[in-house]
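STRUCTURE:
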């Protein structure tokens, strides 16, 4: 089968889409990322002729729409902007959340009426929240589906302890003004005074502290999480304040065998990691107290790391997500093959 996934830049979702591609290729499918910034939609579709197209509602221009209309057999899955009753509660100037534009809604409504596509739209929120953040897509006949972030087993399984990467606290991620509202309160507080904690920060953006060690290669990132005593997860302000946006980092940390202390995001604590996989802190002050505690009693981390790895393997890898995509497309045989392959893969590494 031929699956094409549209990619709109080297941001967080690029790595998630790459995780799906790895799974699809491992299963024997022809799967490619289409860089929408370097190749036209007509060239991409004509050259590859996908059976399944995975794109985004906010990138549906005339070219993509035309390509879909010309291929009545094609299955279409789209990542969707937020469009639900919950947006009424959110100040979009304070919280720059991606919400559906009026022209975006019109294009999708017309496409659905004329072709039946997309088969469904998705976002990375839990289903309990999708019904609040994306329920308005149902008004135009499109089903919104939860597709949580997950772990890339090819990149994050079997993290190894590396003395060069050992630290009290290690964090991998970018630093920009909006995210800094959270990072300053949780991570930067650990950086002063210098030497208070052994903190190592990795990321391509410039951090305003000397603990920033630059980029870490993709193949060593899992070892960062495994080698640190604590690998924090810190979310953006809207995740903390509204409780539904769960980022990819905790899945990566737990897959790597690391121990995670996270800021409190309601859905993450209640819907996803609710079996002692992660220790949650509701305030920056509580976060630092937990850091102190687990540095003093590092042996207490073991049960959380074991629970976290178990939950990831059972529910939250990109094999699980690809299997869910196939199932929602009524490709139940492909869905089962996906999980059978994964079970064999994990058994071979046990």
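SEQUENCE:
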């Amino acid at each position: 089968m031929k699956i094409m996934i549209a990619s709109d830049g080297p941001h967080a979702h690029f790595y998630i889409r790459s995780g799906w591609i790895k799974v699809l290729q491992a299963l024997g499918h022809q799967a490619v990322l289409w860089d929408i910034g370097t190749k036209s939609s007509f060239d991409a579709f004509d050259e590859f002729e996908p059976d399944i197209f995975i794109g985004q509602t906010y990138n549906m221009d005339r070219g993509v729409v035309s390509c879909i209309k010309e291929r009545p057999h094609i299955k279409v899955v789209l990542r969707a902007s937020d469009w639900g009753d919950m947006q009424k509660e959110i100040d979009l100037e304070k919280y720059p959340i991606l919400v559906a534009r009026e022209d975006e809604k019109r294009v999708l409504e017309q496409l659905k009426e004329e072709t039946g596509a997309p088969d469904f739209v998705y976002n990375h929120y839990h289903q309990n929240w999708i019904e609040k953040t994306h329920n308005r897509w149902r008004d135009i006949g499109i089903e919104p589906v939860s597709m949580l972030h997950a772990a890339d087993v090819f990149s994050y399984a079997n993290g190894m302890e590396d003395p060069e990467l050992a630290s009290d606290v290690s964090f991998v991620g970018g630093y920009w003004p909006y995210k800094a509202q959270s990072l300053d309160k949780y991570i930067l507080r650990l950086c002063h005074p210098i030497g208070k904690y052994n903190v190592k920060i990795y990321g391509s953006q410039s951090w305003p502290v000397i603990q920033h060690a630059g980029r870490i290669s993709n193949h060593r990132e899992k070892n960062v999480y495994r080698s640190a005593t604590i690998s924090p997860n810190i979310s953006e302000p809207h995740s903390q304040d509204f409780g539904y946006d769960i980022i990819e980092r905790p899945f990566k940390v737990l897959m790597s065998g690391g121990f995670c202390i996270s800021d409190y995001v309601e859905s993450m604590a209640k819907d996803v990691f609710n079996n002692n996989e992660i220790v949650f802190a509701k305030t920056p002050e509580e976060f630092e107290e937990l850091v102190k505690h687990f540095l003093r009693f590092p042996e207490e981390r073991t049960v959380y790391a074991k629970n976290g790895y178990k939950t990831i393997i059972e529910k939250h890898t990109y094999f699980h997500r690809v299997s869910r995509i196939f199932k929602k497309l009524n490709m139940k045989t492909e869905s089962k093959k996906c999980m059978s392959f994964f079970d064999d893969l994990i058994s071979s590494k046990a």
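REMARK: The domain at 2-150+317-349 is CATH 3.40.50.2000 (Rossmann fold).
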